[in-house]
Amino acid sequence: MVFHDEVDQESSTELTLASCSQQFGDASFEAVDVEEPRKPIAHFDRSEVKLGKQIGEGYFSKVYEINGFQLDHHGNDHYYSPEEQELRQAYHQQVADANGSGRFVLKHLKPRLLQAGRNDFENAVVDLVAEATFLQQLQHPNILSLKGLARGGTDAFRGGTYESYFLITERLSETLAQRIHRWRKQLQKGGTDKNDGSNKTTSTQRLGAKCHYALQIAQALRYLHHHQLIFRDVKTDNIGFAQDDPDKIQLFDFGLCRKLPESNQLDDVFRMSGGVGTRRYCAVEVCRHQPYNAKADTYSWGIVFWELLTLQKPFADFTKEDHYKFVCELGGTPNLSRHSNVIPPSIQTMLRHCWARNVSKRWTMAQVCDSLQDIIHTDDDLQYPRAAEPRQDRLALQQHRQSSFVWRGTRRRSKVTVAA
Ligand SMILES: Nc1ncnc2c1ncn2[C@@H]1O[C@H](COP(=O)(O)OP(=O)(O)OP(=O)(O)O)[C@@H](O)[C@H]1O
Ligand SMILES: [Mg+2]
């Protein structure tokens, strides 16, 4: 067994890896009832994937650019159907785009999880397997595409390392958190968008783009909810932009996504793990460990939209205790009236519906989509695209891609078992 970095070579560790492959076979998550046929994916042995620089990390995993595939033809071709062999070959040939930038990324668990103990590691494995299982079945223009998986599925953990099981996905150009951060910096420097000859601030002019992004996120969530899935980790770190289209949203990081129990009633709530996700985006009932349903995602979507509109972190200086007191006990929400220069009244009303404490009064993502579409269509200022992104924006994006900065996610969570 090969271990990297600081991982201990204790026998208990080996047990953990082996038990993961036994306990969390790929069949442990229910199938999602999608109409479309599954998109084909390719399987690779870890030794066939050449990694480049690390481009991101979350609480549980690290994400690397893929520099190349060294396909192993030594007697292993029987593993693959002719179609899969073709796909593996195609990825090998298309590994970089015309600018030499990697098209694919690989995500695997962090080694420190093994040291943290059996439970942490096994929970993280559950999340990664859930992510692979759901991504493989879902097909939506605003959901990141799964391209490949470790050969042998979770069996790859057997006698392997923390990184033997992995996911390969398309590479994103940047996350929404990164774009917001970039826009905020530009605004602080007094950036204005002279593209249409007006002297409005960049922030105001971008309202159309922001609504366009928020609508795409809402449509991805509406699709998940339609298939009885709850995402549970809607935040700007888990939303990205497609590499080939700087305005196309891609929802990713499906580790906390779960299938909801069957129910005919829209407002039924279910007993699932509380405190799941990222606190500042979390619905009140999730923070309070109370039963919840898909509308917990609506609440988080509202927080993300507020962050996008104001370019400010929600509950920025709040401690865990401050947040609990203000949001869970006093019913506080991010401030709307103070930001009326960047949040039109129609959107303020919509956000209030998203943050309703009474879950049966809170809007569904279908209602959110309808309302936002109406708002966009009836307000000339919100039409998008109105003008191409300013040149300075494109240059900044290029610089960001070339930098060696590693973006670190912040999710903390408790256990993730669904106890419906
Ligand atoms: N396909 C991708 N293209 C570019 N960057 C990515 C991609 N996937 C992930 N990243 C980067 O890596 C970070 C961590 O990835 P991800 O959110 O999937 O990991 P995680 O460990 O599940 O995170 P969390 O802390 O939310 O639990 C992302 O926030 C993002 O910055
Ligand atoms: Mg994440």
UniProtKB/TrEMBL annotation:
Protein kinase domain sequence ranges: 49-376
Source organism (scientific name): Seminavis robusta
Annotated positions for site Important for interaction with phosphotyrosine-binding proteins: Y384
Positions that bind Mg(2+): N238, D253
InterPro entries on file: Kinase-like_dom_sf (IPR011009), Prot_kinase_dom (IPR000719), Ser/Thr_Kinases-Pseudokinases (IPR051681)
Name this polypeptide is given: Probable LIM domain-containing serine/threonine-protein kinase DDB
Gene Ontology molecular function: ATP binding; metal ion binding; protein serine/threonine kinase activity
Keywords linked to the UniProt accession: ATP-binding, Kinase, Magnesium, Metal-binding, Nucleotide-binding, Transferase
Record: active site: D233 (proton acceptor)
Pfam families for the chain: Pkinase
Classification of source organism: Eukaryota, Sar, Stramenopiles, Ochrophyta, Bacillariophyta
